[in-house]
Amino acid sequence: MIIKPKVDNDEIIALAEQKLSIDKKITEIIKEENLGFSYKKLIADLGEYHAKKNVEYFFEKLEFSKNRVSECDLNGILKDEFSNKWELPKSVGVEVKTRYWQKGAPHLGNVKTCNFDLLVFVSLNEDYSIHYISMVKSSELKVTGNQKVIYRANIEPVFATSEKFVAHK
User: Fold this and answer.
1) In whole angstroms, what separates CA 74 from the centre of its chain?
2) Any idea what the CATH number is for the domain that residue 97 is in?
3) I need a labelling partner for 72 at 20 to 30 A (CA). Which of 50, 89, 122, 164 fits?
4) Would 169 be classed as within a structural domain?
5) What are the phi and psi torsion angles at 41 (to 5°)?
6) What is the pTM of this model?
7) Domain annotation covers residue 27
8) Is the pLDDT of residue 61 over 60?
9) Residue ranges in the chain assigned as alpha helix (H)
10) Does residue 18 lie in a domain region?
């Protein structure tokens, strides 16, 4: 026997429909910019979009990886100034990790520092707006045995949108 799920709150139904409409509109806008957007990965793709827009200043060229299962999300050529300052090669791999309204210290999973030179951490607010963005050298990350990084105030970014990360409460 199949029983249809019951939702008896019209406000929840209306809000869910609005959210779906908004998600679809975000999808359309990002697709127009040819970013390889996937609706099912809204948070990750939105994070990659914000990451690229916020850090491209540091690069001569910054592109999304051609293959969605690449070792890193973006490939770039750093400007000489930043390559020298950060002691990194000009050609770098950039990994993006996004967290949506995560309370406490964000846990970033599946971090394989051997696959990238820079990690961009994007924290989104409940309304999908940017809470915080930082870019960290992979050598600065302390990865646990299960490939996790706990993003804490002691991480020294090479770039950040604010002086320090403040966790959602």
Assistant:
1) 11
2) 3.40.1350
3) 164
4) no
5) -115, 45
6) 0.78
7) yes
8) yes
9) 10-32, 42-55, 80-85
10) yes
